[in-house]
UniProtKB/TrEMBL annotation:
SUPFAM superfamilies: Glutathione synthetase ATP-binding domain-like. Keywords: Membrane, Transmembrane, Transmembrane helix. The chain crosses the membrane at residues 55-75. PROSITE patterns: TTL (PS51221). Gene3D superfamilies: ATP-grasp fold, B domain. Pfam families: TTL. This is Tubulin polyglutamylase TTLL6. It comes from Rhamnusium bicolor. It comes from the Eukaryota. The keyword Repressor does not apply.
């Protein structure tokens, strides 16, 4: 192709050549390419000028560089995402919380709800681990596992407090003489006091109990074995409040998270109601199903007076009872106020004894205690505390609808966020600004009024305040 022929090409023809796919262009050999370059310089220059005018090579280069830059950034971000995902998987694998269970016949399933909740919260059952995070003990663990539980790491938690037997031991609690607890007498040591009390109140009936809370039966004083070791006799609460003619008790779940300083949480989201299977009247002390709540109790959803509230309106047990009492012209609030006061009274009274036991352990921040307080009511809505249960029943095998209650209680206890997710600053735990800003506290920490001011806080006290603040934020119901 000569110069004259190229010059004859119009703009349209040049564009067609440029836009033609490479596969349609005839390839040139080396000699033809050299000859073409030498003989047609002007044509090539003109061609390049026209191409530049049409496509603006500089703009194209800038666009290409921009696209390449975006692609490089995108590829790098994807690479970082994959690295983060890999690291997260590794972290989850390495730092998955571990728990183990201490109890008899665990395989029978009575702790099924515990396993279910822990699994959902990301815990892995690892009985062989030495770096576990939680020990869930159904049986009291501190006698057989003392050495292991006296050398706990800061992150390890145990679901019992050393010394809480002073609360859950039925004899100790019943004979404590505390408010809301019916008078009781330990046998045979308090035999004389019992006889004296029965003379003073000749119409009172008694029940003889032991720590197993079995074989309970109403008896008159002359029917009681006064020399029976390991038992106690307690005044029977007559004229109980009845619903549809049935006597019942109320179970309230409570958690102690700290002793000295004392922190107690009462679960207000629900209550466990258990009804005697046989109506109270006509009364017969020989028929225990009339006045003793056993394993085969009558559940709330089978009590006709509560059926509408529980089954039709979808209320819980506590709210169903409240609605029923309000419909009867009674104020249920007085029940819950007494119950909370009773729980506080008992735990505060027993705290010094628990603190003494805790002194045998290197740390007192590794423990918590979940228990259930059981109450009965009389017809005037006065409450009576009968017992506090260590490791209360959490099995829904017999009554499946109770599963929700048990799981909610466990979630409230175990479902709080981890230390890393719950950062607490000094501002969150600051208190008594007026006192802390006084001349007394600004110059000295001697006064008790200044002990909680930031300059006077000991590391241990600060840790207690931080823990209390976290628990308050995540206390649930």
């Amino acid at each position: 192709m000569c110069e004259r022929e190229i010059n004859k090409l119009g703009t349209e023809e040049i564009n067609k050549v440029v836009d033609r796919p490479l596969t349609e262009q005839k390839p040139l050999n080396k000699e033809e390419l050299i000859s073409e370059n030498i003989s047609n310089r002007k044509s090539i220059i003109q061609y390049l000028v026209k191409s530049y005018e049409k496509y603006n090579i500089l703009s194209i280069l800038v666009a290409i560089i921009s696209i390449l830059t975006i692609l490089i950034i995108a590829v790098d971000e994807c690479r970082q995402c994959f690295i983060k995902l890999e690291n997260k998987a590794l972290t989850d694998h390495e730092f998955l919380k571990k728990f183990w269970v201490y109890g008899k016949n665990v395989e029978s399933g009575y702790l099924k709800e515990v396993f279910t909740v822990l699994d959902r919260l990301g815990y892995r059952n690892d009985p062989n681990s030495t770096d576990w995070d939680l020990l869930w003990a159904h049986d009291y663990p501190f006698r057989k596992l003392y050495q292991k539980l006296n050398n706990l790491k800061p992150h390890q938690k145990v679901n019992h407090f050393p010394g809480c037997g002073y609360i859950t031991n039925k004899v100790d609690l019943a004979t404590s003489g505390l408010k809301y607890i019916p008078p009781a007498f330990k046998l045979p040591v308090h035999k004389d006091k019992l006889l004296e009390y029965s003379k003073k109140y000749p119409n009172v009936s008694f029940v003889q109990k032991n720590n197993d809370h079995r074989n309970i039966k109403i008896q008159k004083i002359d029917e009681i074995d006064l020399d029976s070791e390991g038992t106690f006799v307690q005044e029977y609460v007559d004229k109980p409040l009845l619903v549809n003619g049935h006597k019942f008790d109320i179970g309230i779940y409570t958690v102690i998270t700290s002793v000295d300083p004392l922190r107690i949480y009462i679960y207000n989201g629900e209550a466990l109601l258990r009804f005697c299977p046989v109506k109270y009247y006509p009364f017969d002390p020989e028929n225990l199903d009339k006045y003793v709540v056993g394993d085969d109790y009558l559940p709330t959803w089978e009590v006709p007076a509560l059926d509408y509230y529980y089954n039709e309106l979808g209320f819980g047990m506590r709210d169903s009872l409240n609605a029923y009492l309000q419909a009867q012209g009674k104020n249920p609030a007085v029940i819950w106020e007494q119950i909370e006061d009773s729980i506080r009274t008992v735990i505060i009274a027993k705290e010094p004894l628990i603190t003494d036991v805790l002194k045998r352990f290197k740390s007192k921040r590794n423990f918590f205690e979940m228990m259930r307080f059981d109450f009965v009511l009389d017809e005037n809505l006065k409450i009576y505390l009968l017992e506090a249960n260590m490791s209360p029943n959490l099995s829904s095998a017999h009554f499946p609808p109770n599963r929700l209650l048990y799981q909610q209680v466990l979630y409230n206890i175990l479902g709080s966020k981890s230390e890393e997710e719950m950062l607490v600053s000094d501002k969150n735990i600051a208190s008594f600004p007026k006192k802390c800003n006084s001349n007394l506290c600004r110059t000295s920490c001697v006064s008790p009024d200044c002990q909680l001011c930031k300059p006077c806080l000991s590391p241990e006290t600060r840790q207690y305040l931080v823990q209390a603040f976290k628990e308050h934020l995540h206390r649930g119901d």
